[in-house]
Structures are given as C-alpha cells and as structure tokens.
Amino acid sequence: MTEIRITDKQNYLNKNYLFADPPKLTDLKECIHCGNIITVGDYKVLKDDTGEEYICCPHAPDCDGTIIDWFDLKNKP
Fold first, then answer.
1. pLDDT value, residue 55
2. Is 10 helix (H, G, I), strand (E, B) or coil?
3. Are 65 and 34 contacting, i.e. CB atoms less than 8 angstroms apart?
C-alpha cells in the first residue's frame, strides 16, 4: 500500500465517504481496530496495487482500520 497525500481533506472525505453525512475533520471517533481516539482530519489515504483507495486510521499501517471501523464517541454505551 502506498500513502497518497490529500491537500483538501474535507473535499476528499465528502466525495469518498461510504455513508451519509460525512464527518467534519475536527470530529473525534474511536477506531475499533487499534482502540485509539482519533481526529477525523488526521486520516490517511492508502492505495493498493489495484489502484483502490482506502480512507484509513491515522495510525496506519500499524492499524488496519478504515472508516467502517470508526465509531462516534457519543454513541458509546
């Protein structure tokens, strides 16, 4: 995987977020893969050998979490 530098992170997130209502870059989430509280704007974009791009945990490549693994802190039990 190769990291891609994104200059306009909010725009990239708005266009590539898999769910409704992309978060703000200042939102905090918990990555369930590494257990860290992350700031959304610190995300990384990694590209695989086929050209597919993934919005990943800021702790990648040590953490293999992507946006589907990030949970709102307010929704925690």
1. 97
2. helix
3. yes
Q: Please answer whether residues 63 and 54 qualify as being in contact, where contact means their C-beta atoms are separated by less than 8 angstroms.
A: no
Q: Tens-of-pLDDT digits for all 77 residues of the chain?
A: 899 999 999 999 999 998 889 999 999 999 999 999 999 999 999 999 999 999 999 999 999 999 999 999 865 55
Tokens of 36: 């860290």
Q: For the chain, which residues make up each domain, given as ranges?
A: 2-75
Distance, CA of 16 to CA of 53 (rounded, Å):
9
Which regions of 1-77 does DSSP assign to beta strands (E)? Answer: 2-4, 28-31, 37-39, 44-47, 53-56, 70-72
| DSSP SS3 for 42 | helix
Closest CA to 6 of 35, 43, 51: 43
